[in-house]
Amino acid sequence: MFSTLVLPLALCFVALCEATALYDRNLAYRSPFAGHSQSSVDTREIEKRHIAHVRRQTEVANHFDDEHYPTFYGGDFSNSPFIWSGGLNFTHSVASGDPLDNSVLLWTRAVPIGNPDQSVPVCVSFKISSSSELHGDIVDSGEAFTSYDVDWTLKVEATGLHPDTKYFFQFSDCTNPATQSVIGTTRTLPSPDTPANQVNGGKPLTLAVFSCSQYQAGWFNAYGYAAHNTSAEIFVHLGDYIYESLGNGAPIGRQTLGRELATIHDYRQRLNQYRTDASLVAAHQSGPWITVWDDHEVADQSWKAGTADSNDSTIGCEFSPSGACFTDRKLAAVRAYHEWMPIRQVDVDDKLRIWRNFEIGKLLDLTMLDTRQYDRDITDLYYNTEVINTLSTFPNRSLMGFEQEKWFFNQLSQSQKRGAVWRVVGQQIVFTQLNESGSIDVDAWDGYRANRERIINYLYDNKISNTVVLSGDSHANWVSDLAHPNDSTTYDPLTGKGAIGVEFAGTAVTSGSSFGTNISPAAADVKSTAYVAANLDLQWSEGSYRGFFTLTIDPNTMHTTFYAMRNITFANLDGFASANFVVKAGENRLSRPVAGGSTLAGVLKFNGTKGV
Ligand SMILES: *[C@@H]1O[C@H](CO)[C@@H](O)[C@H](O)[C@H]1NC(C)=O
Ligand SMILES: *[C@@H]1O[C@H](CO)[C@@H](O)[C@H](O)[C@H]1NC(C)=O
Ligand SMILES: *[C@@H]1O[C@H](CO)[C@@H](O)[C@H](O)[C@H]1NC(C)=O
Ligand SMILES: *[C@@H]1O[C@H](CO)[C@@H](O)[C@H](O)[C@H]1NC(C)=O
Ligand SMILES: *[C@@H]1O[C@H](CO)[C@@H](O)[C@H](O)[C@H]1NC(C)=O
Ligand SMILES: *[C@@H]1O[C@H](CO)[C@@H](O)[C@H](O)[C@H]1NC(C)=O
Ligand SMILES: *[C@@H]1O[C@H](CO)[C@@H](O)[C@H](O)[C@H]1NC(C)=O
Ligand SMILES: *[C@@H]1O[C@H](CO)[C@@H](O)[C@H](O)[C@H]1NC(C)=O
């Protein structure tokens, strides 16, 4: 019975508060920057939309006479929002990410089935438990709304969890609990003060590290291999998780939808399509991810004020059929990324900040940097390469911006001070100086030499030990000792004496080799032979295979294994370990003989043999 035709004002406010909490629980609305109209959704505005619906229901009910629009909790419609109860589709499985010692982000996407009024939200409930069947022992649960405003994505923080614990989680439709998502697996980190030898229940901890996954270039077998065929517990992505380009993937069944990305619709559609790859779905379902972006999450060669084909000048807006200029494009990209990825907002007042640190007991700090989108000075945009070559030695050039750089130095010192054994630095681009037959990539740290020198000096001057830099972006494997670039007076490449750390730079999940797309192992090795000879710090080079690498970490040793996928032109889990490296705590260099003196692919600097 509808007894009132006019809404009591007080109840409106009650509704406003209650429903807003259900929206606000979905972090996708607030991402990446609550209160900024181009980069988040104002949940109060959405709530006003609901209040308008309440009016429509009370005044002209015909629009909402459908049985599929009950009020939330079945309460009095005058103070409850309408929700959709006509069925939900969990279209993109589940994911989790950015674990802490007591919480983790859970992600799904819940699309209403049928064709409901698009302005009505759907309600999703979640639960998380240490039992794989999610029977009893529910540690956290709750409900949250999603709607078309955030592409039906849902990102909630599960809290009150135990440290260093494996968890299982599942979503369901609030209005029909029988409709459930698949069950995902995730875990929390050990608490920061957990002794290094007790992390992960005393077992070594394995991270899988990825970069450069271009849909049209191949099937994401590397993700599936990591999930199914290694003991990876945490998945780290160093960027280029999506690409803005269209390409031609049709010959291998990988044609990308849409066009070159410019608007929020474009970026969402691309993320949506990438997340249909079964290997990627499996990897997101099987453990927490910790990600940072590189350039292609926005566009090729992005820096703080533009990309290779866009900036905020008249000419720089022309790339886009919809006339989007760089800033609009970047905000759209960033927003879609935060909707689709299980990543935290680090600082609500700093919309672009994704640089952040994870304290993983006293075993390691995993420090994730943003050398790309946050505050990078101008990079190689193809039409300015000569200028950038000249600028590359300027002392005031910055890759991270000085705020992040300061934070990074402080973070390194803090990490050592708190007694963490290892400092693992996840970042986008190759750190070590690389002369590739006379060609220098000035879009990598080689274009920002003084910035690199500041970091190397900081490590030496402050005796920061056990630093391991992880890099992507280059579509090839490069393993190096960290030292002053090309300086044989302070570093001995034979023994590694004088080095201050190690760099593991990994190949792409699929993107074409920088040695030449589809280059054979034999042809790539010819180049690698020249590269390890020409570059003092470089100890292993490999340029044929697509894949990823794992770090298996205990207090004494880091074992790094590079995996090569045999064929990415179709979906399969066929790969092999191409090289294994050891770093011993306290040595600050690769253990000799490097890779045990033998690899299954690529070229070692010294006395390398090819195993069988
Ligand atoms: C659910 O979503 C999947 C993936 O987009 C789609 O293949 C399937 O047809 C959808 N099911 C329904 C009932 O809409
Ligand atoms: C903007 O981009 C165009 C080409 O895309 C380039 O010609 C122009 O110099 C750029 N302007 C600025 C200010 O970077
Ligand atoms: C950076 O340094 C170069 C060379 O020292 C100088 O020409 C340039 O003006 C400086 N730029 C800024 C922004 O300070
Ligand atoms: C880079 O390597 C090539 C050989 O591949 C060599 O000719 C050239 O001198 C090197 N450049 C520098 C700056 O060392
Ligand atoms: C490395 O140093 C040697 C001399 O010590 C020099 O000939 C070579 O050009 C340098 N290479 C690079 C890439 O700077
Ligand atoms: C990869 O598989 C495809 C399809 O079976 C085949 O045509 C191609 O030769 C394979 N490539 C390699 C490098 O084995
Ligand atoms: C990887 O695991 C899958 C599923 O367990 C298995 O079918 C496949 O053979 C494994 N691949 C390798 C190279 O061992
Ligand atoms: C490589 O072999 C040479 C000659 O046998 C030997 O002197 C050198 O120590 C070896 N280097 C390494 C890194 O094992």
Which features characterize this protein?
single chain, 612 residues, alpha+beta, Purple Acid Phosphatase, chain A, domain 2, eight-stranded mixed sheet, six-stranded mixed sheet, globular, binds 2-acetamido-2-deoxy-beta-D-glucopyranose
Describe the fold and architecture.
- Residues 92-188 form the Phospholipase D N-terminal domain.
- This is Unplaced genomic scaffold GYMLUscaffold_30, whole genome shotgun sequence.
- It comes from Collybiopsis luxurians FD-317 M1.
- The protein has 612 residues and is an alpha+beta fold.
- The protein has two domains: 88-187, Sandwich (Immunoglobulin-like); 207-604, Alkaline phosphatase D (PhoD) (Purple Acid Phosphatase, chain A, domain 2, 4-Layer Sandwich), CATH 3.60.21.70.
- Helices cover 21% and strands 24% of the residues.
- The protein contains ten helices and 26 strands.
- The protein has helices at residues 9-24, 43-59, 221-229, 264-274, 278-286, 326-340, 385-391, 402-417, 449-461, 521-534, and strands spanning 88-97, 104-112, 122-129, 138-146, 153-158, 166-173, 176-180, 184-187, 205-210, 234-237, 289-291, 306-307, 310-311, 356-360, 364-368, 422-426, 467-471, 477-482, 501-505, 538-542, 546-553, 557-565, 575-584, 598-599, 603-604, 609-610.
- The strands form six sheets. An eight-stranded mixed beta sheet has the order 14-15-16-17-19-18-20-25. Strands 11-10-9-21-22-23 form a six-stranded mixed beta sheet, covered by helices on one side.
- α1 (9-24) crosses α2, α3 packs parallel to α5 and α4 packs parallel to α6.
- The radius of gyration is 25 Å and the shape is globular.
- The termini are far apart.
- Mean pLDDT is 91; it is low at 1-17, 57-66 and 73-79.
- The structure holds 2-acetamido-2-deoxy-beta-D-glucopyranose (NAG) (8 copies).
- Residues 567, 569-570 line the site of one 2-acetamido-2-deoxy-beta-D-glucopyranose.
- One 2-acetamido-2-deoxy-beta-D-glucopyranose is lined by residues 494, 592-593, 606-607.
